Amino acid sequence: SSGLETYLKKNYKQGSFLLTTCRSSSIAQMILDTGLPCYAYGGFLGSDNSLTVSKLKELVAQGKITYFLVSEQGGMGNTNGTLLSYVEKNATPIDSSAYSSSSDRSEGTLYLFTK
């Protein structure tokens, strides 16, 4: 997902996470490539429930979370549905053509939170 990585680096806001998503396995390489912080709220398999809607609201208000990737793989956590519904209702989806070629759109949907 180098197109996504390039897009996020270009639009990175100092003091925020480069990307927030469910599974650490899907962003580990991005962390290594960029040296920038990312937040995998579901842990390795996506089954941890470390992020609640209220915590997400707080982190967005603080400017810590701007880009949120809703993966096609998702995770196994019970609260993910509520969390993802909040993201879909309160963040703006970014057209995948901005960061991905037509042959490589398997990452999921990228959303942008603005305060």
List the helices and strands and how they pair.
Layout: H1 2-10, E1 20-21, H2 28-34, E2 39-40, H3 53-61, E3 67-70, H4 80-90, E4 92-93, E5 109-112
Parallel strand pairs: 1-2
Antiparallel strand pairs: 3-5, 4-5
What does this structure look like?
The chain has helices spanning 2-10, 28-34, 53-61, 80-90; strands spanning 20-21, 39-40, 67-70, 92-93, 109-112. With 115 residues, it is α+β, with helices and mostly antiparallel strands. The protein has one domain (2-112). The strands form 2 sheets. The protein has a 3-stranded antiparallel sheet with strand order 3-5-4, covered by helices on one side. A two-stranded parallel sheet has the order 1-2. The longest helix is centred in the C-terminal third of the chain and has 11 residues, at 80-90. The radius of gyration is 13 Å and the shape is globular.
Looking at this protein, list some descriptive labels.
115 residues, single chain, two-stranded parallel sheet, alpha+beta, 3-stranded antiparallel β-sheet
Largest sheet: 3 strands, antiparallel
Task: Please tally the β strands and state the result.
Answer: 5
Q: Mean pLDDT, rounded to whole units?
A: 85
SSE string, helices as H and strands as E:
HEHEHEHEE
Number of helices in the DSSP assignment: 4
Strand content: 5-15%
Q: Would you identify the regions where 5 or more consecutive residues have pLDDT less than 50?
A: none
Strand order of the largest sheet: 3-5-4
Shape: globular
Structural class by SSE content: alpha+beta
Helix content: 25-40%
Radius of gyration: 13 Å
The tally of structural domains comes to 1
Between the first and last Cα atoms, what is the distance in angstroms? 27 Å
